[in-house]
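_Backbone structure tokens_
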Amino acid sequence: MADQEALMETAHAMADAARAAILPHFRRGGLGTISKEVDSYDPVTVADRAAEAAMRAVLAEQRPDDAILGEEEGTQEGTSGLTWVLDPIDGTRGFISGTPTWGVLIALCDASGPIYAIIDQPYIGERFEGGFGRALVAGPLGEAALGVEPAATLAEATLFTTFPEVGSLAERRAFDAVRDRVQLTRYGCDCYAYAMLAAGQIDLVIEAGLQSYDIAAPVALIQAAGGVITNWEGGPVHGGGRVIAASSSALHAEAMALVKGALNV
């Protein structure tokens, strides 16, 4: 327990450092935005870089033997058997657009995958954490337990994805198969959608084309809140790829069957 407390303290210190690095840039000019890709728009800003540097500085001081995988600075090897997977701003497109649906992702992983995570929304002041027996959100309304609240049927469920095009044409067809069966579909919330699933507000998140730093933290949070999160084949998804997150095993199974059926058309 002492080790777990120390690890959680480090995670919160990183989230605090990222908040301090990011907030001076939000809804301000001079973001220095560039695209990391030539053929598509994949933006990165000075805030992304500053936040990851701030989190790495915390780790250098408190956990120098741990490995790091970060979106902006890549991999740093470690010797402890633990890896911190960092996305300094998940949802940079939302960040540069001024919407408060981006977040800082911090996941702690061992050889089995994510074991603890934080999703932090600095502007709203909400911090979601899951793992080590905890599933909590702290924010403007105080602190509360997290827990999924499944819809009774798929027809009553709420579905989220970040991009309506999802991925390839086949992946879009698979997403649409679920979209056509649910009550409500919403778009564009990036990591905040997973936080809302853990908070019991929505029922499904379906996405494709994710990297490990996009999904490792949501995996730990959703599992801690009692949800189900896998790839589209039902296997582990913390390494990235295509994800189905659901508020119950029944909704997950039904959504996965629809996705698989559409992919095999």
Summary: The domain at 154-263 is CATH 3.40.190.80 (D-Maltodextrin-Binding Protein; domain 2). The two ends are 50 Å apart (CA to CA).
